[in-house]
Automatic annotation (TrEMBL):
Recorded family membership: Belongs to the isocitrate and isopropylmalate dehydrogenases family. LeuB type 1 subfamily.
Chief localisation class: cytoplasm
Its biological purpose: Catalyzes the oxidation of 3-carboxy-2-hydroxy-4-methylpentanoate (3-isopropylmalate) to 3-carboxy-4-methyl-2-oxopentanoate. The product decarboxylates to 4-methyl-2 oxopentanoate.
Protein name: 3-isopropylmalate dehydrogenase
Keyword presence, Manganese: yes
Reported cofactor(s): Mn(2+); Mg(2+)
Keyword terms, alphabetized: Amino-acid biosynthesis, Branched-chain amino acid biosynthesis, Cytoplasm, Leucine biosynthesis, Magnesium, Manganese, Metal-binding, NAD, Oxidoreductase
Organism: Pseudooceanicola nitratireducens
Residue sites binding NAD(+) per the record: 77-90, 287-299
Length: 362
């Protein structure tokens, strides 16, 4: 059997700093588990622009299409703010998502016991929380035509179009059902079928796909009610599937139920490859954090937990993923925290490297 292959794109700002900690974990797998990843590393974002004049070189794009999984740090920074939109660092990331056709965006909201006090909600509402939002990422109102600002009579009109085809709904629904099968076998689909035709079609197609997954308990909820339920009693959910726009809002809402940006991983999945695994890009939700870059202050957990998602969803190593998540929890429980996880004064925060070392030790 060939080794699992991984393309690492550390990117800009704190990207390389947090990725260095993931490297320690990859090395640990080789040394302690005899699991060797074929790791290649390349440039994306501002650093790629500095070297090649483009935020993503064609060779890097080609490599991303071949590997089992891509792990990305973060892109962007003030140095590149004045660049033309077409060559901005973010375009490198957008190109990866588009050309890999990553239509299914996974955003977990998981509460680490040690951080239950850190939430803005009551502890018993979030303790033990573990839900997954699946957001459709390549269609819907952010892409639908017609769009634009037009003259109409003596005023202007701004138009965006919510548009979903059956096949677009079908494939993201399937991705969500597959996930539900690996988790608590419960899926809630959210749209606004009460006021939107695209929502009516969404509900019909998801229901139809559900017939292929009789073990999964499927429910439907209007997205506005879903937002209320997510803050009232989020533990009623396991997997939620929703469109691009509602998913943008609901995934940010759900993510903040449990705490800091420095803790949030994500995965973006596409169609299954020849080996049956989906095309996949894993990345922390946070950006390049120029305000703390180069100071050893960044929390590496979001990137480490993104790697845990890669273990689970690209490498069939769910048990190892769980162990890695438990290691992060154990480190937090020991009181080892980067500055973003401390709200009391007088405690010395752990550095990025100290946090990573502690996870490896745990
Ligand atoms: P950001 O996520 O980089 O930072 C927001 C705040 O959170 C900052 O105060 C930062 O210090 C803090 N923070 C972020 N990650 C952290 C971590 N791991 N540990 C501790 N603190 C952390 O978002 P911002 O400031 O809006 O954007 C900065 C740059 O990053 C911009 O160039 C933006 O375009 C880019 N960006 C890139 C993204 C990506 O690569 N996926 C996503 C979001 C922004
Ligand atoms: Mg958002």
């Amino acid at each position: 059997m060939t080794n699992p292959s991984l393309l690492i794109l550390p990117g800009d700002g704190i990207g390389p700093e947090v990725m260095a900690e993931v490297r320690k974990i990859i090395d640990w797998f080789g040394a302690k588990r005899g699991i060797t990843f074929d790791v290649s590393e390349d440039l994306v974002g501002g650093c790629a622009y500095d070297k090649h004049g483009t935020p993503l070189h064609d060779d890097t794009m080609a490599k991303a299409q071949e590997v089992d999984a891509v792990l990305l740090g973060a892109v962007g920074g003030p140095k590149y703010d004045a660049l033309d939109f077409s060559i901005k660092p973010e375009r490198g990331l957008l190109r990866l998502r588009k050309e890999m056709d990553l239509y299914s965006n996974l955003r977990p909201a998981q509460c680490f016991d040690a951080l239950a006090d850190f939430s803005s909600l009551k502890k018993d509402v979030v303790a033990g929380l573990d839900i997954m939002i699946v957001r459709e990422l390549t269609s819907g109102v952010y892409f639908g035509e017609p769009r634009g600002i037009f003259e109409e009579g003596n005023e202007r009109v701004g138009i965006n179009t919510q548009r979903y085809t059956e096949s677009e709904i079908d494939r993201v629904a399937r991705s969500a059902f597959e996930l539900a099968m690996k988790r608590g076998k419960k899926l809630c689909s959210m749209e606004k079928a009460n006021v939107m035709e695209s929502g009516i079609l969404w509900r019909e197609v998801v229901t139809e796909v559900g017939k292929d997954y009789p073990e999964v308990e499927l429910s439907h909820m209007y997205a506005d009610a879903g937002a209320m339920q997510l803050t009232r009693w989020p533990k009623q959910f396991d997997v939620i599937v929703t469109d691009n726009l509602f998913g943008d809002l609901l995934s940010d809402l759900a993510a903040m139920l449990t705490g800091s940006l420095g803790m949030l991983p994500s995965a973006s999945l596409g169609a299954p490859m020849d080996n049956g695994r989906p095309k996949a890009l894993y990345e922390p939700v946070h950006g390049s954090a120029p305000d703390i870059a180069g100071q050893g202050k960044a929390n590496p957990c979001a990137c480490i937990l993104s790697f845990a998602m890669a273990l689970r969803y690209s490498f069939d190593m769910g048990d190892e993923a769980t162990r890695l998540e438990q290691a992060v929890n154990a480190v937090l429980a020991q009181g080892i925290r980067t500055a973003d996880l401390l709200n009391e004064e007088g405690i010395t925060p752990a550095t990025t490297a100290e946090m990573g070392d502690a996870v490896v030790a745990a």
